[in-house]
Amino acid sequence: MPPSPAPDALPRSELVALLLAAAEGDEPSFSELYRRTSAKLFGVVLRICPDRGIAEDVLVDVYLTIWRRAGAFDPGRASPITWMATIARNRAIDAMRRQPRVAPVAIDMVPEMADCATLAEAALIEAEGDARLHLCVEQLGEPQSGAIRAAFFHGLTYAQLATTMAVPLGTMKSWIRRSLARLKECLHAED
Fold it and tell me: Quick one: DSSP state of residue 6?
């Protein structure tokens, strides 16, 4: 079962509510929980299980575990995403332990390289930050949110944006400057 595309950002309280409802056997809540968190948890699993087929199987096992153990979730001890990510990490490690071992290679035969992999916790923090950023961009409203997306996510220049959106260059620069100030306020308000 592959993950759902691009999860919507959900506040912690809503994730808690979905998990608690799932603990009571509420299938629509569990389905919504899956829709909102599967991409994030699939990323955790995929970092540990690089084989996509195995990772998808592990993700199914992760959600079966979440469904069965939702009643054990304690919102006072951990955030919902941390609790679910821990389950995903543990299931992925278990799956990798079950895989056949490859013959060891002499260490001097392996080229030196830095470990550039992001830790699962860092990936979760980054994903939560991305979700907050996208939520703040949405709060800007149109046409400012479209201008910010085009400028920073797609690399368009002020001149290209002004031409595309049929506004004077000075207006575009003002939109971007004011929008960035509002984004900064929104992101810091969440802290």
Answer: S
| In contact, 179 and 144? CB cutoff 8 Å | yes
pTM for the model stands at 0.49
CB count in 10 Å sphere of residue 151 = 19
Q: At what angle do helices 169-189 and 158-165 cross, to 10 degrees?
A: 110
**Predicted confidence (pLDDT) per residue in 133-176, tens digit:** 667 777 777 887 788 777 776 777 888 888 888 888 888 888 88
* Rounded-to-integer distance, Cα 42 and Cα 54, Å: 11
- Taken in order of first residue, the domains within the chain and their CATH numbers are 12-100 (1.10.1740.10), 129-189 (1.10.10.10)
Residue type, 10: L
Specify whether the CB–CB gap between 147 and 67 falls below 8 A: no
58 and 95 Cβ atoms separated by less than 8 Å: yes
Q: CA–CA separation, 43 vs 3, rounded Å?
A: 9
Q: Which residue, chain included where needed, has tokens 């860092």?
A: 122
Rounded Cα gap, residues 27 and 44, in angstroms = 24
Per-residue pLDDT tens over the stretch 51-63: 898 999 999 999 9
